[in-house]
C-alpha cells in the first residue's frame, strides 16, 4: 500500500480545517517504493584519514593528503561495510582481507579557510588562513567478500 500524506485544505476565506479527514487532500509523489522494489548497487564504506566515506566503482573522492603515494599509484582502503545487491557484509573477520582499490589522480590544496580572532577593548586582532592538502582518488575495484 503506497504511503499517502494528507495536507489540510482551506475553505474560501476561512482558516484551515484540521478535524477529521473531511478537509484533507492526498499529496501525490510523496513517499516512495518499498526497499524490496529498489535497485541496490555495489558500494562500500571505507575508512581513510580518520573519516568514513561511501564509495562505488568509478567514484572520485577526496581524502587527506597521502604523502607517500604518487599520481598513478594504487591505494588500498580499509573496508568497514560492503553492500552487493541485497547482501550486506559488515563482519570485521570477513572484511579483514577485503581492500577497496583506488588510483591516485591528483594532489592539491583545498579551499582556503579564514580564521579571525578578536578580543574586545584590547586591540587584539589576528587573521589567519589555512588550506588543507588533499589527494584525489578514483575507486577502481570493490572485491566481493569471501563467504564464511
Automatic annotation (TrEMBL):
Q: Which gene encodes it?
A: rplU
Q: InterPro entries this protein is in?
A: bL21-like, bL21-like_sf, Ribosomal_bL21, Ribosomal_bL21_CS
Q: What is this protein called?
A: Large ribosomal subunit protein bL21
What is a single molecular function from GO for this protein?
structural constituent of ribosome
* Keywords, comma-separated and alphabetical: Ribonucleoprotein, Ribosomal protein, RNA-binding, rRNA-binding
Briefly state the protein's biological role.
Answer: This protein binds to 23S rRNA in the presence of protein L20.
Q: How does it assemble?
A: Part of the 50S ribosomal subunit. Contacts protein L20.
Give the UniProt record's GO annotations in the biological process aspect: translation
This protein's GO CC annotations: cytoplasm; ribonucleoprotein complex; ribosome
As for family, the record states:
Belongs to the bacterial ribosomal protein bL21 family.
Is the keyword Phosphoprotein assigned to this protein? no
Amino acid at each position: 500500500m503506497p504511503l499517502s500524506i494528507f495536507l489540510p485544505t482551506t475553505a474560501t476565506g476561512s482558516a484551515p480545517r484540521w478535524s477529521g479527514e473531511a478537509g484533507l487532500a492526498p499529496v501525490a509523489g510523496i513517499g516512495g517504493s518499498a526497499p524490496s522494489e529498489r535497485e541496490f548497487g555495489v558500494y562500500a564504506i571505507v575508512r581513510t584519514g580518520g573519516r568514513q566515506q561511501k564509495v562505488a566503482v568509478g567514484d572520485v573522492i577526496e581524502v587527506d593528503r597521502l604523502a607517500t603515494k604518487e599520481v598513478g599509484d594504487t591505494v588500498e582502503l580499509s573496508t568497514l561495510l560492503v553492500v552487493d545487491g541485497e547482501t550486506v557484509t559488515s563482519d570485521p573477520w570477513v572484511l579483514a582481507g577485503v581492500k577497496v582499490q583506488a588510483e591516485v589522480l591528483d594532489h592539491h590544496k583545498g579551499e582556503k579557510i579564514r580564521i579571525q580572532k578578536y578580543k574586545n577593548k584590547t586591540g587584539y586582532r589576528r587573521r589567519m588562513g589555512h588550506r588543507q592538502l588533499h589527494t584525489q582518488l578514483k575507486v577502481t575495484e570493490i572485491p566481493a567478500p569471501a563467504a564464511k
